[in-house]
Amino acid sequence: MAHEILELKRVHPTRGYSHCARAGNTLYIAGQVALDPDGHVVGRGDMEAQARQVFTNLRNIVEEAGGRLENIVKMTTLLTHFGDIEAYRTVRDTFFREPFPPNTLQVISSLANRDFLIEVEAIAVLD
């Protein structure tokens, strides 16, 4: 099946990758980090601020494709500090309601930029 790379306006520009590919009614969303639409890091050292930006980016991508956060069927979350899990969950719970989409949570030593504390990738299926 052919896929389409979406051109998005409500998230930061990319270099060397795309934010989202659409194949049929399925969106494959690249890991989102705490960058605002102008490409500036949001919330250095602040997990809650970074998580809010990450989930805002996810929402913006899904909405631009014609969906809603409820269309997300799977996420993978990467955190750089074990102690940030509760802060991440607190913010996640303001964007999602139970039952939450399946999520793989990993704590790793670093992301692509040392300022990033969280990255979330997702798969969404549009109605």
Overview of this protein structure:
- It is a single chain.
- A 6-stranded mixed beta sheet has the order 1-2-3-6-4-5, covered by helices on one side.
- With 127 residues, it is α+β, with helices and mostly antiparallel strands.
- The protein has one domain: 60s Ribosomal Protein L30, Chain: A (2-Layer Sandwich), CATH 3.30.1330.
How do the strands and helices of this protein lay out in sequence?
Layout: E1 4-5, E2 20-23, E3 26-32, H1 47-64, E4 72-79, H2 85-95, E5 103-107, E6 118-125
Parallel strand pairs: 4-5
Antiparallel strand pairs: 1-2, 2-3, 3-6, 4-6
> Can you say what the CATH homologous superfamily is?
RutC-like
Number of helices: 2
Give the amount of beta strand, in percent.
25-35%
State the low-pLDDT regions, or none.
none
How far apart the termini lie comes to 18 Å
CATH class: Alpha Beta
On the 0 to 100 scale, the average pLDDT is 97
Number of domains: 1
Question: Please, what is the oligomeric state?
Answer: single chain
- Give the overall shape, derived from the CA principal axes: globular
Main β-sheet, spatial strand arrangement: 1-2-3-6-4-5
- Output the helix-strand order: EEEHEHEE
How would you summarize this macromolecular structure in one to three sentences?
The chain has 127 residues and is of the alpha+beta class.
List keywords for this structure.
6-stranded mixed beta sheet, alpha+beta, 127 residues, 60s Ribosomal Protein L30, Chain: A, 6 strands, globular
